From TrEMBL:
<feature type="active site" description="Proton acceptor">
    <location>
        <position position="70"/>
    </location>
</feature>
<dbReference type="Pfam" id="PF08501">
    <property type="entry name" value="Shikimate_dh_N"/>
</dbReference>
<feature type="binding site">
    <location>
        <position position="219"/>
    </location>
    <ligand>
        <name>NADP(+)</name>
    </ligand>
</feature>
<comment type="subunit">
    <text>Homodimer.</text>
</comment>
<dbReference type="Pfam" id="PF18317">
    <property type="entry name" value="SDH_C"/>
</dbReference>
<feature type="binding site">
    <location>
        <position position="66"/>
    </location>
    <ligand>
        <name>shikimate</name>
    </ligand>
</feature>
<dbReference type="GO" id="GO:0008652">
    <property type="term" value="P:amino acid biosynthetic process"/>
</dbReference>
<dbReference type="GO" id="GO:0050661">
    <property type="term" value="F:NADP binding"/>
</dbReference>
<feature type="domain" description="Quinate/shikimate 5-dehydrogenase/glutamyl-tRNA reductase">
    <location>
        <begin position="114"/>
        <end position="196"/>
    </location>
</feature>
<feature type="binding site">
    <location>
        <position position="242"/>
    </location>
    <ligand>
        <name>NADP(+)</name>
    </ligand>
</feature>
<keyword id="KW-0521">NADP</keyword>
<dbReference type="GO" id="GO:0009423">
    <property type="term" value="P:chorismate biosynthetic process"/>
</dbReference>
<feature type="binding site">
    <location>
        <position position="221"/>
    </location>
    <ligand>
        <name>shikimate</name>
    </ligand>
</feature>
<dbReference type="InterPro" id="IPR011342">
    <property type="entry name" value="Shikimate_DH"/>
</dbReference>
<dbReference type="InterPro" id="IPR041121">
    <property type="entry name" value="SDH_C"/>
</dbReference>
<keyword id="KW-0028">Amino-acid biosynthesis</keyword>
<feature type="domain" description="SDH C-terminal">
    <location>
        <begin position="242"/>
        <end position="272"/>
    </location>
</feature>
Amino acid sequence: MIDSKTKLVALIGHPVEHSLSPIMQNAAFRDKNLNYVYLAFDVLPEKLKYVIDGAKALGIVGFNVTIPHKIEIIKYLDKLDKSAELIGAVNTIKVDKEAIGYNTDGIGARKALEEKIGKVENKNILIFGAGGAARAVAFELAKNNNIIIANRTLDKAKKLAEEIIEKLGKNSDEVKYVPLNTDLKDVDIVINATSVGMKKDDKPLATAEQLRGKVVMDLVYNPLETPLLKEAKKVNAIAIDGLGMLIHQGAEAFKIWTGVEPNINVMREAIMKYLNYSH
């Protein structure tokens, strides 16, 4: 029950209507009997500068941050946790006297992969994209794998690859950058960290034949079966939808706000129930 002691947590992004975060976070709060509520706020880029001061004034205790604000929000925060500092993007904020930025996307992606295929190390991993989500996933997985950044704007891919090499002490054989339409021959795992697949008429970033024998993960979770995952399924490749990462990064954020470990299964069940009702 919402009352005058209820603490508010929210998602900020533009757009946010597609988000399933309110479904799973509110289910997790109820499961742990915590007096919190989670809402979604569509924040236009030009209004982003008001969010943190507004949160402090209203006593909002935390945020998730999604496209397109993950990098831009940093300039309005008081501090960054090590993960956010390394990645240069924020997806979770805790607000008290200070607003502190965190990034749970990378660990969320790793846990989603490992849930399906076991320990992920010494693999060749190609990541489509060089934005906020791609940065988080690339930095996390580059710790013990070879990473290839594929992006439409090659300069952005190059910049991200160079940052990873410098900050993690890697070499140019371990972290590479390539154009978007690249050969996937020696790649073990393919991850889509762009928004391609969210629109009905989006073309897949790789063909079924290119994905044969690979693990394919798409961070887009609405729709659950993206064009890329449809291609992967045509050749019986291991296809991992965006729900795993969404849930695991959300669970890490939940812990940051509340200090409590949420029940992953409760979060997943709430989403699946909602999707069955709404489609």
